[in-house]
Structure formats: structure tokens, C-alpha cells
Amino acid sequence: MTLLQMKYFIAVCENGSLTAAAKSLFVTQPALSTAINQLEKEFNLKLFERKNHGLVLTADGEFFYDKAKQLLNQFEVFDKDLKDLSQSKYTIRIGVPPMIGSFLFPKIYNQYMQHHPDAKFEIWEEGSLTIRKKIMNKSLDIGFSILNDNANEHYEKEDILETELLFCVNKENPISSKKSLTIEDIKDESIIMLREGFYQNQLINQMYQEVHQEPKIILISSQLSVIRNFVKMNAGGAFLMKELVDINDDSIVGLPFKNKLILKIGLIWQKDAQLHLGAIDFIKFLRDNNKV
Questions:
Q1: Structural domains for the chain
Q2: What percent of the chain is helix, strand and coil (3-state, nearest 5)?
């Protein structure tokens, strides 16, 4: 049995036919058919049932598929590690929500690069919920996420810090003089929301449900500069982490809620995942230097 045979077998499983698999791999159909026949002959197994609508895995085929996927994934990680070692650099695929990317990740990045100057990051700016999905489907190795809900139980995690979500308005807004807020104070305010995929949206929507009202959304964006500019224009208010309220910019006022909206931030990765050396080293560094 070879890795190429396993790759061909997996492609047939996932495409449902020899024709579609051959097209996806840019190989001939006879080459695929030969590989499958060799596997069945070598182990005396029947891996597929031939049906009118295509190929269907047998029970033996399903077992073979699960094991082959695991082995091929481990090989790909191993292959990447060897390439990283040979090039003396890592490529770490990491998800970073825009708010976290604006104040937290740069500090961690600078600290890490001082000790690992050859490291390389591939950064995806997404919301926490989207990052979780990408980690589960292995599009990302690791990612920063808000950890308030129980969904993070599906991941390994390293807690980093707690922050607070503030409601930010222009200084000319009448509510800017308040010391603290309740949902009643803002239920009729125009709101600038982050786009879908951000955990904060769930928290905000839950607050509005308490007063049986929908937020009055005037703009949806994931660009912090756009959100800030609309707040400065007094077009509406926005929910931002307290670190993003510039004390030197008196045009925007950040107001806390009486019942503080605390957000827990951490780094997450898939449980029992076969991480490459770069991601493993970054996690270890964060654990050893978690003083941001």
C-alpha cells in the first residue's frame, strides 16, 4: 500500500465516482481503477459496491477510509514540519478577529518574533465564530476567540485576558454624559454592528431580546476604521472593547453597562489535532509568556 493509492482511494470516496475523482486529480480513470483494485487485492477486501448512481463504500471501505484519512493527514503535517525545518521557518495559519488584532495580537506577535525571527504567519481576519469553524475544518491551525460560551469546550484553549465591551457614541449624543448604561438606555439608538460571524453579535442580540426589541441597525461592517468614523459622525453607536476607546480622542465616549459586559479572550485550537511544529511552538510560547 502506498500514499498515492490512499490518496486516490480517498478522492474516489469524496467524489463518489471514478470519473469525478480522476478529473479532480488530473489523472486517468484507469489509473484510479488500477489503484483501487490493487488495494482490494492486497488486503483481500471489497472496498466499494458498484451501484447505478456511482460507488458506495462497504463497511470495510468505511473503515479503510477513516484510517486512510488519518494517516494522510498525519503525513501532510509531518511533510510540512520537515519543510519548515529545512527552511528554518514556520508558517502558522492563525485567525484574528479585527478588534483583537488591533490591540492584542500585535503585542504577542512582536514578543514572539523577537525569539523566532524566521517565523511566518498567515493571518485570517474573521469573527470568533467563523474562526472556530475554520479551525474545525482545518483551514486554520489556531485562532484567537472570545471564550464566554460553552462552545469553546470543543477546543483546547489558553486563556489570555478579560476585557469589557463598551457602548461608544459621539460626545454630542445625549447619553454620552451617563456614567453607565442599561439596555433600556440604548434600545432606540441607531447601531453600527459587526458582520455575521462575531460572538459579540450574539451577546448584543440577547440584550435586545430582554426588552423585546430588535436593534436599529444602520450599518454592518468589520472594518474598525469605518465603525469609528460613523460614530464620530454621530450616525450611531457601536459596541467596542474598552482597549479600542482612544483616551486622546474626545470625540468618542465609551460607556460601560451597569451589568458589565465582560469578554474572555483566549487562543484556541482543535482538540486532539495533529498540529505542526510552528503552531505547537507558538502555543508553548504564549503559555510561557502570557503577560500581555
A1: 3-87 (1.10.10.10), 91-161+265-288 (3.40.190.10), 162-263 (3.40.190.10)
A2: 50, 25, 30
